[in-house]
C-alpha cells in the first residue's frame, strides 16, 4: 500500500508540475505576442536545474547584445583560472634590487580594498624596478565609446593599475583629491567635460557637493611617479625582467573582488580580472588570449559560440545567446557551492543593481546579473520558486524604444508568476 501511495503521490506531483508548466508557457507566450514587444527583440530561456527540463524557450538560440551580462562569462573564467587570493605581482630579487612585473591586479590603492598587503611588501626594499612591457592589450576595449573616457565606468586598462585608475574628487575646504598628485591638475569651474581628452586636467564645479570619480590617462611615467610617492622612494622602470624563475606575491581574497564586480557591475574589475587570468597562463597580459583559451578549452561545448570581445560588456560588439548564458550559469551551479555562488550575484530587492527591483516575498527569490546599455536591458541568473525549485534563466531585451523601467515591470510580472506557480 505504501508503494501504491508513493506512486500516486509522484503521479499527482508530475501532473501538477506539468499543468503549471503549460499554464506558465501559455501566459508567457501571450505576453510576448502582445503589442508591447512588437518593436524590440526579446529572448527568454528558463531551465529547471534539477531535471534539466526546459520551462520556457523564446528565441533562446538567437544572438543578443549582452551588455554587463558578459560579466557572467568573466566570473566563470576567474573561477576556473585564479587561486584563492589575487596574484598581485610577479617578482625576482637580484642583488639589492627587487624587479617587479604587473599582473593586472586591480586592488592596489583601490579605495574599496583596504587590506592590501602589497605596499608593505614593496616598502621592504630600497631599490625597486617595475616592468610594464608585458601588457599587450589596448587601454580601451574594442567597440568602447571613445567619449566615455571621462566617466567613472570606463577607466583605462593596464598592467599595474593604481587607485583603480581613477581620480576621486570631493568637496571639502579645500577640495580633496585622491591621488594627491593631481591636486594641482584640478580646475574648479563648471565645464562640459570632467577631464581633457589627451591630458590629466580635471574639472570640478565650485558649487558641486558630490564625489566625482574621473579616470586618469595612464602611462609608465605616471605609474613610476604615483608608486614612488606612496612608497616614499624613487621607483625605476625596467625594460625587461631578469632571467630566472619569478615568484608571486598575493594580495586580497578573490571573492571580495568577484562580489564587487558582479554586485556593483564594476567594469574596471571585470577587465583587470581577465588580465589577471592571462598572467596565470603566461607572462603576457592579453585578455583576448584568455577568451580564446576559455572558448577552446572550457566552453567548447557551447552550441552557439559567442562573439566575446571584452570582460565587462561595455562593447556592443559582444554577442551572446540566452542559451549560452544558461549553459555557463548551469556549469557554475554544478561546480561551485550554492551559497558561495549566489553570494556573487545581486539579490532582488536587496543589493547592487537589483536593490530596487524584484523584491522577495519575503526572502529574495532572484539572484541575477543585469546588463544595460542604451536601448538594451538583460538579466540572467537564478530564480528560486516558492516550491523550492531552482531555475536558471536568461531574459534578454534588445533595441527597445521604451523607458527601461517599463521593460523591468514586464519582466518582474513574468518572474513573479513563475516564482508563485511553478
Automatic annotation (TrEMBL):
PROSITE patterns: PROKAR_LIPOPROTEIN. It comes from the Bacteria. GO terms for molecular function: serine-type carboxypeptidase activity. Pfam families: Peptidase_S13. Keywords: Carboxypeptidase, Hydrolase, Protease. The keyword Protease applies. One of its GO terms (biological process) is peptidoglycan metabolic process. Signal peptide: none annotated. Belongs to the peptidase S13 family. This is D-alanyl-D-alanine carboxypeptidase. The lineage of its organism: Bacteria, Pseudomonadati, Bacteroidota, Flavobacteriia, Flavobacteriales.
Amino acid at each position: 500500500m505504501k508503494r501504491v501511495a508513493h506512486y500516486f503521490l509522484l503521479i499527482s506531483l508530475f501532473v501538477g508540475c506539468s499543468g503549471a508548466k503549460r499554464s506558465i508557457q501559455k501566459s508567457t507566450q501571450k505576453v510576448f505576442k502582445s503589442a508591447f514587444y512588437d518593436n524590440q527583440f526579446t529572448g527568454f530561456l528558463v531551465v529547471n536545474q534539477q531535471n534539466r527540463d526546459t520551462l520556457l524557450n523564446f528565441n533562446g538560440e538567437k544572438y543578443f547584445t549582452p551588455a554587463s551580462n558578459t560579466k557572467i562569462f568573466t566570473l566563470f573564467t576567474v573561477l576556473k583560472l585564479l587561486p584563492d587570493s589575487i596574484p598581485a605581482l610577479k617578482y625576482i630579487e637580484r642583488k639589492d634590487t627587487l624587479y617587479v612585473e604587473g599582473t593586472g591586479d586591480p586592488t592596489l590603492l583601490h579605495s574599496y580594498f583596504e587590506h592590501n598587503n602589497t605596499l608593505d611588501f614593496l616598502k621592504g626594499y630600497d631599490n625597486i624596478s617595475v616592468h610594464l612591457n608585458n601588457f599587450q592589450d589596448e587601454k580601451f576595449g574594442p567597440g568602447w565609446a571613445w567619449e566615455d573616457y571621462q566617466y567613472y565606468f570606463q577607466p583605462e586598462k593596464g598592467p599595474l593599475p593604481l587607485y583603480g585608475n581613477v581620480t576621486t574628487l570631493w568637496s571639502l575646504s579645500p577640495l580633496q583629491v585622491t591621488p594627491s598628485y593631481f591636486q594641482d591638475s584640478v580646475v574648479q569651474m563648471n565645464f562640459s567635460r570632467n577631464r581633457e581628452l589627451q591630458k590629466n586636467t580635471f574639472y570640478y564645479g565650485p558649487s558641486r557637493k558630490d564625489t566625482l570619480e574621473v579616470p586618469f590617462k595612464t602611462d609608465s611615467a605616471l605609474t613610476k611617479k604615483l608608486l614612488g610617492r606612496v612608497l616614499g622612494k624613487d621607483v625605476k622602470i625596467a625594460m625587461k625582467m631578469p632571467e630566472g624563475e619569478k615568484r608571486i606575491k598575493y594580495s586580497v581574497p578573490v571573492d571580495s573582488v568577484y562580489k564587487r564586480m558582479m554586485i556593483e557591475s564594476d567594469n574596471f574589475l571585470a577587465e583587470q580580472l581577465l588580465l589577471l587570468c592571462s598572467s596565470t597562463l603566461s607572462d603576457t597580459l592579453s585578455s583576448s588570449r584568455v577568451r580564446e583559451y576559455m572558448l577552446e578549452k572550457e566552453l567548447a561545448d557551447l552550441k552557439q559560440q559567442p562573439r566575446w570581445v571584452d570582460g565587462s560588456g561595455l562593447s556592443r560588439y559582444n554577442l551572446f545567446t540566452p542559451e549560452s548564458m544558461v549553459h555557463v550559469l548551469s556549469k557554475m551551479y554544478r561546480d561551485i557551492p550554492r551559497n558561495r555562488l549566489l553570494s556573487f550575484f545581486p539579490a532582488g530587492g536587496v543589493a547592487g543593481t537589483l536593490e530596487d527591483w524584484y523584491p522577495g516575498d519575503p526572502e529574495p527569490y532572484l539572484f541575477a546579473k543585469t546588463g544595460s546599455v542604451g536601448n538594451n536591458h538583460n538579466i540572467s541568473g537564478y530564480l528560486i520558486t516558492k516550491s523550492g525549485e531552482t531555475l536558471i534563466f536568461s531574459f534578454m531585451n534588445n533595441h527597445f524604444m521604451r523607458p527601461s523601467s517599463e521593460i523591468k515591470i514586464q519582466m518582474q510580472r513574468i518572474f513573479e508568476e513563475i516564482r508563485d506557480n511553478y
